[in-house]
Amino acid sequence: MKRRLARALLTALVIFLPAAAPAAEETYSFDAAEIEKKAFHFGGYLEVKPVLYGLDRDSAFYKLRFYDDPQGSTLPEANGRVQLEGSFEKDIYRLYVKTNTDLKYSDPTGSSERSVFYEAYGSLKPSEALKIDAGKKTLKWGKGYAWSPAAFIDRPKDPDDPELGMEGFIVATADYIRSFDGPLKTFSFTPVVVPVYNHINDDFGNSDKLNFAGRFYFLLYDTDIDLMFLTGGSRPDRYGLDFSRNVTTNFEIHGEYAYIRNTRKNVLDATGKTSQVEADAHNYLVGIRHLTTFDLTTIVEYYHNDAGFSDDERTNYIASVDRAYSLYQATGKTVALTSAKNLADGGYGKANSGKDYLYFRLSQKEPFDLLYFTPSLTWMVNLEDRSYTLTPELAYTGFTNWDLRFRTAFLVGGHDTEFGGKQNDYRAELRVGYYF
């Protein structure tokens, strides 16, 4: 299987490599037909991504995953991605479809494939002020870069790669927009209906519910402001707001706030006893973006997750994993490990499941006049337990339609911390992408 996957990845590179040529060698000509709006559009993205994980054999999550199948010091993995998108637009009608197929192969689990529609919806625009959409769609609420606590109808971002596309939900929504003279320049209202039934948004929350959400947008005194809500029973009721403002041309500040009623989480005490805690949550984010005259972009964000786990709660959980693993080694019994896995799936194992985080990213475009080359460095820290990830990245886009990226991520922290408890100490990956 490994050889077949390697041959498939190599074949993909061979097929598309001849299309790669330095952008500087292209010639351009003007054709009026090229700027005419076409009814049909089709495009896509192909990606090959080999990954090497450096495993931490003493960590809690290594024990949970590999307790009965010990691994070496490293774990190679091969990934592929195929995204296709197309649209048809005529008069007041538009259809849009985006598919995503993920391929993965690793020694412990073998190969896997998952294909889904990221988006598939139809639009009707009877006037410049009104647009109606129905189908599977990503709404992209919120102003945060690494996190968006007020994005009530979107899946959580991956802070390790916030710009990745995400799968949407099946919704019916509209946008009503008005423009004004004066301090309030623009107002819009976006009502959303989210059905949750068997095979319809069944991963959104409780089934057999019809949920309602909405967003009010204001461009007031050159500040973008949104007010949002979600109610209906599939998820706890929640209310939020966000803002974004350019203080200067190259300096922007933004923030989000979400109030979520009756959030629930399962926690362990020092003896390993499980209990469910229910409380209202106040989640918020503040951040800045700054671009210098020499093209250095800085992004800084602070995120507070009221529904996350405290340092003590995480310490108790990791201690329970250690006890369960020791019991398995002594008796072969897996009941305690299975229980710990269920708690990981319920929250402890999710990305950024703590309470307070700081995100810091530097990105320099074409340093030392190296065309099409962008190095960057990302640092994300759990402020309670002081564990962190450090991710340097090199990106090159000098070949037409190609995107080449190499990055490593180092996870640093003690045994009972969030990032120190992960199954790997580091990760190195090469991403080769082709757009068409």
How is this structure best described in words?
The chain is mainly beta and 436 residues long. Helices cover 13% and strands 52% of the residues. It has four helices and 18 strands. It has helices at residues 2-16, 60-66, 311-331, 335-348, and strands spanning 40-55, 74-90, 93-106, 110-127, 130-137, 169-179, 184-196, 209-220, 223-231, 238-248, 251-268, 274-291, 296-304, 356-364, 373-382, 388-396, 402-412, 424-435. It has an 18-stranded antiparallel barrel. Strand 14 and strand 15 (373-382) form a beta hairpin. Helix 2 crosses helix 3 and helix 3 (311-331) packs antiparallel against helix 4. The model is unreliable at 1-28 (pLDDT under 50).
Could you outline the blueprint of secondary structure elements for this entry?
Elements: H1 2-16, E1 40-55, H2 60-66, E2 74-90, E3 93-106, E4 110-127, E5 130-137, E6 169-179, E7 184-196, E8 209-220, E9 223-231, E10 238-248, E11 251-268, E12 274-291, E13 296-304, H3 311-331, H4 335-348, E14 356-364, E15 373-382, E16 388-396, E17 402-412, E18 424-435
Main attributes of the structure:
13% helix, 52% strand, 436 residues, disordered N terminus, 18-stranded antiparallel beta barrel, globular, 4 helices, mainly beta, single chain, 18 strands
Q: Provide a count of the helices.
A: 4
Q: Order of SSEs, N→C?
A: HEHEEEEEEEEEEEEHHEEEEE
Shape, please?
A: globular
Label the structural class: mainly beta
What does the radius of gyration come to? 24 Å
Low-pLDDT sequence parts = 1-28
The largest sheet, given as strand count, sense and whether it forms a barrel, is: 18 strands, antiparallel, barrel
Q: Calculate the mean pLDDT score and round it.
A: 91
What is the distance, rounded to the nearest whole angstrom, between the alpha carbons of the first and last residues? Answer: 28 Å
Q: Portion of residues in helices?
A: 10-25%
| SS strand fraction | over 45%
